[in-house]
């Protein structure tokens, strides 16, 4: 995540930031979002569990041969370890998917990280513990936030090239654009309370109520049911 978003928008101010690798994990976008708009959000997954994509085969590029597919970046995971306060960490948890509820959304786990200068440190990160491999893609907006952060903090150049190979989801066909319109007119009015709650939590640095979190989980399930059984067969996939 770029400092423009982390500090400017999220109001989290790290006192130290280090590029690190996390062995045994890779970045995926299988945290469920909203079809046709923000299909998948970032999470990390143990490499042994990432079976949804076969390794690409290419004699022309070792980089392409090593990457899992166009929605994963391969292992080891490269990312940024930020030194922040407990209060800032709790603010991040409260304003990410699930809002810190233990039954769904992101959960906090410890991971072992290796800094680029050879040190081993213990970090914490958010992961969807109920995740399954879906092969979802990020939106161009979401992927840009990740790319900006990777370049700003000078992640390994080869890993940045892997990130560039991730294909963002764009509703490009007429059918997919119609499906977006259907969601906007039929379901999105019900998302307005969630948006208001999220903005309030961001500004006031409070935790949205469990009722709002459960409500949004229900809305997402409705959206993906519509996508899988109605919109995708008729208009094309939204992920």
UniProtKB/TrEMBL annotation:
Substrate binds at residue 142. InterPro entries: G-Glutamylcylcotransferase (IPR017939). Gene3D superfamilies: Gamma-glutamyl cyclotransferase-like. The chain crosses the membrane at residues 182-204. It comes from the Eukaryota. The keyword Membrane applies. Its EC number is 4.3.2.9. The active site is at residue 96. GO terms for molecular function: gamma-glutamylcyclotransferase activity. Keywords: Lyase, Membrane, Transmembrane, Transmembrane helix. Pfam families: AIG2_2. PANTHER family: GAMMA-GLUTAMYLCYCLOTRANSFERASE (PTHR12935:SF0). This is gamma-glutamylcyclotransferase.
